[in-house]
Amino acid sequence: GISVHMIEMRPQKSTPAHTTNLFGELVCSNSLRSDDAEINAVGLLHEEMRRCDSLIMRCADATKVPAGGALAVNRTAFSQMITDTLRNHPLFSFEAKESGLPEAGEHPIIIATGPLTSDKMATDLQNLTQQDSLHFFDAIAPIVYTESIDMSKAWYQSRYDKGDGTDYLNCALSKEEYNTFIDALLSGEKVSFKEWEKNTPYFEGCLPVEVMAERGRQTLLFGPMKPVGLSNPHEDGRRPFAVVQLRKENKQGTLMNLVGFQTKLTYGAQKKVFKLIPALHNAEFARFGGIHRNTFVCGPKVLDEKLALKKRPDIRLAGQLTGCEGYIESASVGLLAGLFTALPNLPI
After folding, report:
1. 3-state SS class at 55
2. How far apart are CA 64 and CA 62, in angstroms?
3. Which residues fall within 8 angstroms of residue 133, CB to CB, at 6 or more apart?
4. Is residue 37 within 8 Å of residue 311, measured between CB atoms?
5. Rounded to whole angstroms, how far apart are CA atoms 259 and 266?
6. What pLDDT digit, counting tens, does each position of 198-216 carry?
7. pLDDT for the residue numbered 204
8. Treating both helix axes as pointing N-terminal to C-terminal, what angle do 55-62 and 327-342 enclose, rounded to 10 degrees?
9. pTM, 2 dp
10. Which of 62, 155, 195, 288 reaches 20 to 30 Å from 82, CA-CA?
11. For residue 20, what are the CA distances in angstroms to 16, 76, 92, 224, 329?
12. In the chain, where do the E strands start and end?
């Protein structure tokens, strides 16, 4: 019952990570993580948001693709449904322009610019909060065309056989192939940082795959290339030495993303290095991986218990900008910001 006017810089101005003009575009993974409310905190969060009639959860459930126990979505359909729902709402209006911090007025304000906040807004927030830094780096995994994968060297199986068996495509590597891959990964050409970016830290929950490898040659065997819970039918059902898992990007299964393989390798290096994975030796890339700078505030220092800026109580922050991480966590904080704004006397 509350009218909302949204200001959004796209399509007037885009970011290095966005490719569409749709609302709610997912720029990294297409997964909202575990959907099991009985054993997983994220799954419980899903259920709580559904009971609050979360738009994000409604659109995710309507556009989900097979992903074992996780809730993964068709990116384009998901964003399109969010966009259509808002655009067709009688109390919603839209203005395309880049904005800094607005002046104080009679209406409450929510800033939900996310991790890809423009320099203008980030500078205004930094000046207001007097924080030294608002930035860290995040990375994106590459996507390949399914038809270009060598199925004589790959197989469908969910880890520990969860799901219907077609949720993940597995690409095995022997010990020798793994070591060759690690050597190429470590020596591959990386994207150079600009001078003002050099001291920006990585987000530990989404490290580039080559940065993980730099921490030790075996690190990936306990991360995105772990073989546990899998058996290779091309090798008499034996557990492989290492595995790269691919997850469906769309319901048709024509696109697959390399799970956990976010990277800052150059495009040329990605094509060379990732084709060393035996099943991907002829892979065609629909999108290469990349790296982008993210923005967030130190929430406990600058926000009150209802997400309002201590120095500007008329403004609430929402989503990853508050310092939380992950799609579903950001969406849940956005839901809270909306509830606190619509119901200012809501107890917490």
Report:
1. helix
2. 6
3. 200
4. no
5. 18
6. 555 566 667 889 999 999 9
7. 63
8. 140
9. 0.64
10. 288
11. 11, 9, 21, 28, 23
12. 4-8, 31-34, 64-65, 70-73, 92-96, 109-111, 135-140, 143-145, 154-156, 168-173, 242-248, 255-258, 285-287, 290-295, 308-309, 312-317
Query: Which two tokens mark 77?
Result: 């359909």
Amino acid at 340: F
Per-residue model confidence as pLDDT tens digits over 224-268 = 999 999 999 999 999 999 999 999 888 788 999 999 998 989 999
Q: Please, what is the Cα angle at 347 between 342 and 348, to 5 degrees? A: 105
Asked if residues 154 and 247 have their Cβ atoms less than 8 Å apart, the reply is no
Tell the residue number behind the tokens 């772990």, with chain if given. 226
Mean pLDDT of the chain: 89
Q: What is the DSSP letter of 232?
A: B
The two tokens of residue 18 are 């966005």
Residue 174 amino acid letter: S
